[in-house]
Amino acid sequence: MSSDDSPLHRFLHADDGPLRLLREILSSVAFVALVALVLFGASGLWPPLVAVESGSMQPHMVRGDLVFVTEPGRFASDAAFRETGVVTSETGQSSGHEAFGAAGSVVVYEAERTSSPVIHRAHFWVEEGENWYDRANASYVAAENCRELTNCPAPNAGFVTKGDNNTEYDQANGLAPPVAPDRVRGVARGRMPALGCLRLGFGENSCFV
Fold it and tell me: What is the pTM assigned to this prediction?
């Protein structure tokens, strides 16, 4: 049997039929796997991409965006708070650090009240037991004092966070207590519009409902 008749040669050079289809499928899978490995190497996280499921970060992120996320310490700014890799909005305003159209880092964190990670901006850091009412932007709390404010005094040290399109801090509306560093999955670095719609599928968070 000549080399031109070998199965490998037929697979590599088939112009039509099932061998060509199989070759194209395997090539596509290999390309996707290569891209995934490159993203994982840059991110340090798996998966390195998360889909935005709501409009809480509009206009800087919208439902269906696919967001590239890295470990907090990767590409961290000198303005980051301590060793967290996260720049708060409070610090970002003075240092000039911006992400997705506003001061401070956008973090992906685990919240007890939701099954999916939350993608919101870190506004400032509070210490355990701190009365943070006077540090809060009055527009983002529906309370007259710390006693009336949810999660005040702070039950633990962590970040006070908020969706750019939301009217209250996550801690003020009870979505989460201050976000401790070990609850931060990563920091958002870039977004690809609409590509996350494929990941969201046709459920209640679908781009098509």
Answer: 0.81
